[in-house]
Structure formats: C-alpha cells, structure tokens
C-alpha cells in the first residue's frame, strides 16, 4: 500500500510499496492474490484462517485487474489482499466467531467495515481465527484450535533458541499469538495479507500485534462503525486494524472511518480525511506522558527497559516527558469484569438455536431446547461469563455491581481526561507484560486469569473510548517482538498515528525472517520484495 | 417484531363503592353490585372503569379499588421503531423483517425519528413533562418470539412523565349527566414490540411471525382493593387485554373477586392473571418460575435520546438531526377536550352531544361541514346530525365516511326547512329519499314529490272549507264545545295537502272560519 505517500527526498519524490507496484504494473492483483493464497496454504499449520475465501478473492482480483488496466483504480487498497477476523459479518461467507454456536452460519450482509474495504477494491482472503466470541487473550480458546505465532518459526527466534541449551522439543514449544485477534495478527505477520481487521474490546487487537511484531491500532470509539461486528461488549468494542507499518494502518483507517447510519454510536463530526500522516520532523513541541501506575511488578524487565529507552528517546529528541498519574488504573480489571460479563450475558441471549446457528436435537420443550443448545454451543469461557453477567444484572445485585462498575468506569475515563488536560499529548505505556509465551506455558492458567493479566495495559483505554496503537519496538533476548503502546486523546487518532509513525521510524523494527519456514516460498520473499514487506516500504 | 410501540402507564385513581355480599370468587360474569360505565376514548389512552358509588348499608365496610393500566399502543408509522422495515397491517408472516428484526448477530438498532415525534406529541397531548434526555434499556427474557433475548424499552428514564387526562363519564338516569374525571399518567415510553407466537396445538409446534404490525392496543391492568384509610392491598396483574370491553369486564371481575376473597378470609397473591373471554373471569397464569427478573441494563447501542426546545436548540443545528419539542407542540391538533368545550360554547350544545360528535370517527367534521353550508340554527343541525343522521348510520352499521348523504345535501335540506319551504315531516321524507343515494338534491326531491309547503292561502282556505263541508259531524262537535275536535280537522286538512301545509296556518284558518 502506501503508494501515494510521497516522501520528499531532496528534489524528487519516491513511491514505494505494493500499491505503487500495482499502479506501475510491476505486479497484477491476480498475481498478488495468488502469491498470498499460496502463502496461506504454506502456513496452514499456523491456524490463522478459519475460512479461506479463495474464489471470492480471485474474482475480486480479476475485477481489480480490469480497473487497473482501464486506469480506474479505486485507490490505495485496490487489489490489496486483506483478512477479516471471523467475528465480522461477511455476506455469503461463513462467520463463526470460532464457536460451535455459529458453525455453518452464513450471514446475508456485510459488516460496514468489510463493505468499505470491498468498496475500495480490497481482496478478501478469508476469515481469521480467534478466541470463541473474542473472549480471551491468547487466541487459544476457539473451537477451531489455537493460533500459532509465526515468530515461533522465525530465523530470529530459532537462532536464539539454538544458543539456549535448555530448549525443549521444538514442535510442541510454539508460541501463542496473543489475542483475541490472533488469527488476524498471524495472517499479516506471515505475509498472507497486507492488512487485517481485528476487534478490540480490552486489547484484542493491540495484544496480538505486540506479540506478532505488528502495528495494532484501536480507533476512538465512535470513529469506525460496529455494524456487523458480532459484539462482545458493545460499549467498548471497536474494529481494530493490524498492519506491518503505521502508514498502512492510516490508509485502512481512512477507508473505514466515518459515520454510519446503521450504527448510532458513530460520530458525525467531520474528521480529517484521508488519514495522511505527515512525517514529523520535530518532536520538541510534543509532551509524552508516562503513567506511573503502569509500572507493575509483573512487568518483565526487558519490556520495562524498552519502555524507559523509548521515553529517553523522546526526551533526547526534545520532547517533554512527564510522569502522570491514572489513579484508578488498579480498579480497571475488576470493573471491566463486571461490565464485560453483563453485556456478554445480554448479547449472547440471542443465540438460542431458533433462527440460526447450532440447534440441539432435544425438542421436549422450548426451554429444554434453549438450555441444551447453549450448553453444546458455547465453551466454558463463554458460559462462565454469561453466568457472571446474569448474576450482576439481577435486580438485587444491579446497584452493587453494575452501577458501581459504571461509576468506576467514569473515574477511569476521567483519569485520562485529567492527564490530557495537564498538557500531555500522548501517553506511552507497555502493551503487554512480556513477549509471547509458549502455548504449553500459557494454558497453565485459565482464560479468566490470563485475560485479567494480559489486558492490564490495554483495557482502560476501551473503557475511556480512546484511540491507542501498539508499535513493535525491538526483539527480546529470545528474539521475539516487544511492542509499546501510545494512547491519544479521543478522536485525535491522526495525531496519535503521526507520533507513532515518528517513533516507528526511529526504532527500525526488524522484518520477520520466515525463509526457513516457507522454504520453497522463499522465492516469493527473496525475489519479490513486494510481498515481503508492507504496502509501504 | 420491533413494531414501534408506545407504552402508557397510567396510575389508577381510587374508586369507592359499596361492599357487596358474599358470592363465589369463581362466579362467572360481571360481579353484582357494581355497574361499570365507560367511555370510548378519543385515543387509546388509559381508560378507567367507574364504579358508581352506592350508599353502603349500615354496618357494611366500604371497599376502594385501585387500578393501574399499562397500555401498549402501536405507533402509526411507516417503518419500525428500530429498523427500516415496513409496518403494514395483515402483511404475510415474516415478510417485513429486516436483519435487525431477526436479531442477526452484529445488527444494531437505529431509532425511528417519526416514532420519537409521535411519542413527544402523545406526551404533550397527555399533559406530560417531556424529558429532554431519555434513555433506552434492555429487558431480558427468553421467549421464542423475542429473537434477541431482550426487548429494548425505556425503563429508567422514559421520554415523558407525570401527565394527566381529563375525561367525562356519563351518569344519571338517562346517562345524560357528564361527570369529569382525571386519570394520572405515570410515564410514556417507547418500546420495541416482540414477535407473535402462533401455536399449532395439533402438531405441537409454535410458529413465529416477526412482522408484528398488528394488535394496535394491548393493556395490562394492575388491580388491588383496600378499605379507605388503610394501606393499599396486594395487587394482581391481568395481562394481555386487547379490547376496552374485555378490559372493563376483567377489572370488574377482578375487583369483585378480590373483595370476595378477602371477605371470606382468603388472601390476594401478587400474581399474574389472564382473562378468559368466554367465561368472563380471570385466572392465575401460574408462572412456573414465579416473578421474572428482567435483568434490566442500559442499551449500549443507542446514545441518550436528546430533545430540544426553542431555548435549548443549538445554533445552526441541522433540522434533520434534532427534534424540537416546541415545533411539535405547534403541530398538535386541537385536543378533544378543547374541541368539546368549543362546541358547547359556540353552538350551545349539550356536553354529552359534544362527546357523541367526537367519539364517532368523522362525525365532527361532517357536522362542521353542514354548519358551514346551512343557514339553519346550530341546535337544529346538532339534532339532525345526532338523531336522524347518526340514527340511520347506526341502523345500517355504517361509518360516517360510508354515508350516502353528504354534508352539502343535509345542509340544503336544513335550509329548505329553515326557509319554511317544507315541513319537518316533509324534511324527514326528503332525508329518507336522500339516503337512497340516487344522486338527487333535496330541491329536486321536494319538487318531484311536491313536498313544498302550501304558501297559497287562498287554496288552503278552499281546502279547509271543503274539509269542513265533508265532515259536518266534527264541526258540530266543535261548536258544541269540544275544542279537541279541531285537531281532527287539522289532521284531515294536512292529509289532504300531503303534509305540505303548515299546521299553524291551518289551525288559524279553521278557527277563523269556525268563529265567523
């Protein structure tokens, strides 16, 4: 992508990336599509995709090719392979939420964000894996099995492991992607597409982005339509964007942002479009806030050190770096638990087996059918949250739990307002406690404990509806990506991404080296630089 | 599903009435000892049955009943409350169902502007306080015709509150006395309707219709009884009453049942009951799970509904994006109460006549059109419209719009009467001709049938003379001092004129002739 971003280098401008290649005819949309489809097949074992929409993608590529031939390209996304998390409604394509409950459900309509991507000429490669109904932080708890982190097979990680005499059996020692949008993260990370849609309710886009070395962007609540996103927590859900660089995220955001008559929570105020990011030359007018409450004991020393280095970097380039306080941060997890499970209990009520999705064989009564259908259709995590949520919503508990949690939510949101009012432009925090962990280690804890731990830096942002982005910073000692998070003012998404872009340029995060994994695909990667990197570089 | 609904919650007034003796609580039919009167509403607003006060016999305890109504009325709109799909009466099942109506995952509610305006207008008409900010809530329960597992309603902060409706109840011997009453309106809320379950007992199947554009009125009545001055009694809720008649019957029955129960040493359970149409009694619905916990929570997909008035309207606001209460107030038609008062003042009509004029759809307009075109006295017009015209309509079970007689025709007829061109009797004859709907004007009918009053005094005198000559016995009676005999002569002359002569003039001529 990023073809029309001209970077002034002296007297001439240079265009780069796959979008430019498409425009200049160096590659056709069909060739690009086929390369990605072949990579999807090679990386099938990652379990990134639930459904591969090969026919649809090839047909879209064909149409895109016609447009290019006629000089009627629709823009930066025309002919670009993308993937969509399997909790977005896609017309005519199975949408499962990685749940037995929706196996076989083929929606009759496209989510607004999906439609907008298609309207821009993007090629839909398929639907990506997730935790069931996006409830999880590992992409390990879906009915189609866990997603494997492509970095498990990277040259960077493998080489570090060889140096480690304690390393165990390699095959069972693969890493989780993080989640719940782990399939989308793996799909982008393994070069099977250029951008993917995730969803972000408590960090589900930013967390896997950090673990997979990607840019993971959560827009301001109300900037991007949720129509067609099968909800987890309506008041916190936003469609998320996973790309390999900040400019690409901005291009996708430009295509998706804007009011939607089908989603009454989208805002009408005009937003600067398209989301063209200026290259920030000078950060001296910038004020970066470091929330002191985010320095928790569980934070790995490596992440902590990178966070500190990043702050130093801003400071050394002339930015003002301030310690700020978000005093209600520690209540965020328990507050989120009450609000999330309550909305989940409500949102899951429609899955009763009557109209769509799974239905059990029991037909002695409607009630018995509901009960059995829901027992068979939902996993333990979903059922557990439904039970908790219904408990919190009972008349006798509502005031003590739900209303109190709403009040705490307001306090958490106000913490951010106060921080920004004190002059801070963006906040800089870790995205995750550490780099990705091996699956076998991850599953030692249950989903609830894991989610509570892993969402610690990300979920408060959802309660406040703010934009946030995770940027890959460096590789850990183990050779695994570590991300840091920037949080911006509500609807200052463009400013946030501009800062993130400057930072991205400074840190020069390395490209994942998957040649070993995709040996006979190496040609694609080596010979055609186009497919190996982002739409931009 | 999702047809827009308005819900009124009217809080009951206290109605006192005499204790009545004994009686089984399972008795069929209306309870004895209370007569229920009700008026037909101008709109589907809270109707209260009135229990006329009877003097309690000595030593008897008075009972008071408290009735609260929850009224579900469908908003007249082209599309549903939260989706763009149409609302149409008697459409084929499930033919008007959007993805949202079917609760497909990922769909979101979008509030229908027209429904909000209708709710505001209703609130204004019912003297409510309109909340500038109102909220939507989810009410949860599992039922096959509720595909989302919850219903979107306005539980915590509804669009309108604290209203009242004044109405009249006919009383007295001939129901001619109108007693004004006021019912308090607790709140008006916008609510999504559920679907409709069609039970096929033969195949033990239930079919669901998600159109849900029918059933314009449904009422749940909450009823309790107590002794005045003592705390209110335990209430029962009679659900799903779908006509005013059944509502009145159910309330009458339930009040009496509760009194009987209490007087026989029983107790009233806080329970849901249903009304059995054929048996005319209420029966416990015996909810297996007892009281439902609806687990209300805010609807997160709909922002607070904010309304504006002239003072709060933001400058430069897009009229398509905001709803202005003051603007809706301006479009409010004259309310029935005001119309009735105006009719009484302007035309000197009885209050009960004004009720009749407004209660029959189209009758007021008909009346006003006649008034506009005729020189006849308003009282004459009122009498003709309410007695003759309405009488013919009722007899043939026709609506005003189906009447074969137009306002212009009636106006012309009344003019002929007013100008004494025809007699009252002839006028009735003309009206009967008009009702045949043969397209003749009253003037044509009068001349064809020669119904004009005989204006020619000479020929009338001659006719009187002939009649007197033909009936010498009657003349004799008169002369011998039987004054009533003149009536016979008048009748004979009228008959000879085919009712075309003015009886007063006939009498005058006869008297003159007799005294000469």
UniProtKB/TrEMBL annotation, chain A:
Residues 156-175 are annotated as: Disordered. Coiled coil: none annotated. Its EC number is 6.3.5.7. Pfam families: Amidase (PF01425). One of its GO terms (cellular component) is mitochondrion. GO terms for biological process: glutaminyl-tRNAGln biosynthesis via transamidation; mitochondrial translation. The active site is at 85 (charge relay system), 180 (charge relay system), 204 (acyl-ester intermediate). GO terms for molecular function: ATP binding; glutaminyl-tRNA synthase (glutamine-hydrolyzing) activity. Keywords: ATP-binding, Ligase, Mitochondrion, Nucleotide-binding, Protein biosynthesis. Its main location: mitochondrion. It is found in: Mitochondrion. It is an enzyme of class 6 (ligase). It catalyses: L-glutamyl-tRNA(Gln) + L-glutamine + ATP + H2O = L-glutaminyl-tRNA(Gln) + L-glutamate + ADP + phosphate + H(+). Residues 34-497 form the Amidase domain. It comes from the Eukaryota. Transmembrane segments: none annotated. Subunit of the heterotrimeric GatCAB amidotransferase (AdT) complex, composed of A (QRSL1), B (GATB) and C (GATC) subunits. Allows the formation of correctly charged Gln-tRNA(Gln) through the transamidation of misacylated Glu-tRNA(Gln) in the mitochondria. The reaction takes place in the presence of glutamine and ATP through an activated gamma-phospho-Glu-tRNA(Gln). Belongs to the amidase family. GatA subfamily. This is Glutamyl-tRNA(Gln) amidotransferase subunit A, mitochondrial. The lineage of its organism: Eukaryota, Metazoa, Chordata, Craniata, Vertebrata.
Automatic annotation (TrEMBL), chain B:
One of its GO terms (cellular component) is glutamyl-tRNA(Gln) amidotransferase complex. GO terms for molecular function: asparaginyl-tRNA synthase (glutamine-hydrolyzing) activity; ATP binding; glutaminyl-tRNA synthase (glutamine-hydrolyzing) activity. It holds the Pfam family GatB_Yqey. One of its GO terms (biological process) is mitochondrial translation. Residues 365-514 form the Asn/Gln amidotransferase domain. It is an enzyme of class 6 (ligase). It catalyses: L-glutamyl-tRNA(Gln) + L-glutamine + ATP + H2O = L-glutaminyl-tRNA(Gln) + L-glutamate + ADP + phosphate + H(+); L-aspartyl-tRNA(Asn) + L-glutamine + ATP + H2O = L-asparaginyl-tRNA(Asn) + L-glutamate + ADP + phosphate + 2 H(+). Keywords: ATP-binding, Ligase, Mitochondrion, Nucleotide-binding, Protein biosynthesis, Transit peptide. It is found in: Mitochondrion. It comes from the Eukaryota. Its EC number is 6.3.5.-. Subunit of the heterotrimeric GatCAB amidotransferase (AdT) complex, composed of A (QRSL1), B (GATB) and C (GATC) subunits. Belongs to the GatB/GatE family. GatB subfamily. Allows the formation of correctly charged Gln-tRNA(Gln) through the transamidation of misacylated Glu-tRNA(Gln) in the mitochondria. The reaction takes place in the presence of glutamine and ATP through an activated gamma-phospho-Glu-tRNA(Gln). PANTHER family: GLUTAMYL-TRNA GLN AMIDOTRANSFERASE SUBUNIT B MITOCHONDRIAL AND PROKARYOTIC PET112-RELATED (PTHR11659), GLUTAMYL-TRNA(GLN) AMIDOTRANSFERASE SUBUNIT B, MITOCHONDRIAL (PTHR11659:SF0). This is Glutamyl-tRNA(Gln) amidotransferase subunit B, mitochondrial.
